[in-house]
């Protein structure tokens, strides 16, 4: 369970360009479910996702991961939580050009101090799971869009995270690849992962891989509509 209590995020506080991105959001997110943060561009969904993943801190409020309050932890502890608990799939994928697919997948595991042979074996198993083992030694700039997305998924899974965070993961994919991505998310959820996705893509929101949609607009949660 992830619990947010009265979360606010203010940028440039006290300056003429002060901007409040998130306004007093309280939310509980269930484990082993897929939750989509839905909203237009600028609604605050990516900001909220970044706080959920310990990438940025809220200006006010508390975030609990299970029973552990994480908002006030020192950065070195947050870095360890990010590495061990979360796997990230970014809109731009952020694969590093000039190195191989295998090396990209292995990157998040380097700070753990594991033996290289163990990390290589795990990375190859993930590439096989993503039908990409035949591209392990290829440079990422040689991949198609779908292959690059699958490489990003393998990289997100390398440290065995319990929670997968995806920021607009289908923004640059066609319909077939978007549906393929959501099918992969469904398999990961069924394997016990918690999936958090920020998206305004109808293909994501309408997918049967999604258990819950949380709508956000102007930094606030939109109350669910009552059934007629």
What does this 3D model show about the protein?
- It is a single chain.
- With 228 residues, this protein is an alpha/beta fold.
- It has a single domain, classed as Rossmann fold (3-Layer(aba) Sandwich), CATH 3.40.50.300.
- The protein contains 7 helices and 10 strands.
- A 6-stranded mixed beta sheet has the order 6-7-8-3-9-10, sandwiched between helices. A 4-stranded antiparallel beta sheet has the order 2-1-4-5, with helices on one face.
- A hairpin with a 2-residue loop joins strand 4 and strand 5.
- Helix 4 packs across helix 5.
- The longest helix is centred in the C-terminal third of the chain and has 16 residues.
- It starts with a strand and ends in a 7-residue tail after the last strand.
- The mean pLDDT is 90.
Topology, element by element:
Elements: E1 2-11, E2 19-29, E3 34-38, H1 45-52, E4 60-65, E5 68-69, H2 75-85, E6 86-89, H3 101-106, H4 116-129, H5 145-157, E7 163-167, H6 175-190, E8 194-198, H7 202-205, E9 212-217, E10 220-221
Parallel strand pairs: 3-8, 3-9, 6-7, 7-8
Antiparallel strand pairs: 1-2, 1-4, 4-5, 9-10
């Amino acid at each position: 369970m992830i619990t947010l209590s009265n979360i606010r995020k203010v940028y440039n506080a006290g300056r003429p360009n002060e901007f409040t991105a998130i306004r007093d959001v309280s939310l509980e997110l269930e484990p082993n479910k897929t939750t989509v943060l839905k909203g237009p561009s600028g609604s605050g969904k990516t900001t909220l996702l970044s706080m959920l993943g310990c990438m940025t801190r809220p200006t006010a409020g508390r975030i609990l991961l299970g029973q552990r309050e994480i908002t006030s932890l020192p950065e070195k502890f947050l870095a360890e939580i990010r590495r061990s608990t979360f796997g990230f799939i970014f809109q731009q994928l952020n694969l590093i050009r000039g190195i191989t697919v295998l090396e990209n997948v292995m990157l998040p595991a380097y700070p753990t101090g594991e033996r290289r042979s163990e990390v290589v074996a795990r990375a190859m198993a993930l590439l096989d799971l993503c039908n990409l083992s035949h591209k392990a030694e290829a440079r990422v700039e040689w991949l198609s869009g779908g292959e690059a997305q699958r490489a990003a998924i393998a990289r997100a899974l390398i440290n065995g995270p319990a929670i997968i965070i995806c920021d607009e993961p289908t923004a640059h994919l066609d319909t077939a690849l978007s549906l393929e991505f959501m099918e992969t998310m469904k398999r990961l959820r069924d394997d016990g992962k918690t999936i958090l996705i920020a998206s305004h893509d109808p293909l994501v929101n309408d997918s049967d891989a999604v258990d819950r949609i949380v709508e956000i607009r102007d930094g606030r949660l939109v109350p669910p509509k009552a059934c007629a």
